[in-house]
Amino acid sequence: MEDRSDSFTTTGCTWLRPLSALTGIPLDQVNFIICQLFGLAIAFWFRLSLSPHRVSPTLRHAVATFLGISFVTFCFGWYSSHVLVLTLVCYVIQCQASVQNVHWYSMLAAVGYLTVCQVSRVFIFSYGVLSTDFSGPLMMVTQRITILAFHPSLLEYLSYNLNFMSILVGPCSNYKEYVDFIEGRHVQSKLKKLREGSSEPNGWDAISEPSPVRAVCQKLLVCVGCMVWFFTIAKAFPITYNVDPEFMTQASFLSRLAYAFVSIQAARSKFYFAWTLADAIHNAAGFGISGVDKKGRVSWDLVSNIHIWEIETATSFKSFIDNWNIQTGVWLKSVCYDRVPYYQTPLTFALSALWHGVYPGYYFTFLTGIPITLAARAVRRNFRQYFLGSPAVKFAYDVVTWAATQLTICYTVMPFLVLAVEPTLEYYRSMYFCVHIISILAIIVLPQRPRSSKPEKHCVYVCVCLCVCVCVYMYVCKGQAEQRTGTGQRLLCGSNKESSTGP
What are the subcellular locations of this protein (predicted)? Predict the structure, then answer.
């Protein structure tokens, strides 16, 4: 869903090149969309014709795996072999490593292989060259491999990691819930939890297999709206204009803030589209029930990756993050935040940046997110209680914090979208590094809770050290780009990176 007039190379299938030329959508994205739409149709067939009541779990595992491998091969060609190699290597580790160390070995192998592939693709083979980005499936497989706490059979392992519902863009689901879905226990396991948590008869045990058609149709309508929004607003407000030299020097500060807000609002729609469509595919296959309310209405958001309304109305940095790329947030919390004894926030952001890739803009985005998160906690802790006295004052507080949150998000994610060294530094310089300065001052000046003040103060020094490392890394990347192009031409706005995984 990105308009590229440049020549584009792909290792995936080229059957749809005429459609790509007709629509102006890059071939890799056309392949992705067609695969997902085909996957949606296949998902209904999978639920109805390959129901657990009709066929064995083995057949369902095999079909889901075969379709997933077919999809990733169609989109990425021989690059899909990286996904298969990583999956098989980590299965061997699962079988051979001790229980005490298997999670460390799996994490090292998965993240290490992912990083090597990203480095080789970006800096060795195609820096600044338009080519298919095969890291998306690798990123999804890395999540599933490192969160797995069971020892399944090879077929179950392949099915969980490579199934057609989530191979291209995720999300990462819980292994037990996935196996319950394949074996036909998914719905009843959710209803059992509701029965056990209720003290009154509610009839939930009498509910038959619910139909996902309503939920799927609602999510497809959201997808259509996102596509319309992207192709109208995003085309009128391109991200590249934020770092246009003339715009940065001549437009006022408020004008640049307003443009950043509108352009990034429009850019989000492509992530909304990809994740909502993936959610609809899971639901169409019968996977995704999270519960039933008191009126008997089924909720289909178990594997949802975004809550759009909560994102657009977020009044805090944390609220925004909690509702964006939800399943990745769950994964980061499970494998990093809950496991490390100190510096949970900076280490989690660091892992998130490493998982996303090796473009300099990613690291500046997540590095910027560390002091903002700590500052937001301090501000909320020190001031929020003074604005809860009346509904009018609370409403005014919410409006101000909503505006601050949305503009801060725009400031934070701009490097994630422009990717490269020079535009990132030029943009932040044009914004006077204002959010960085305000955040660090808030952490230092505002009172902290006694039990956590020392670690949070130390985070400031960690941020400074990381900032120095990232700046050095960014200039190294710049030097490599200059050596390859001879001109030091800037890489702007995902010109060789179009990811649906998101920040």
Answer: Endoplasmic reticulum membrane
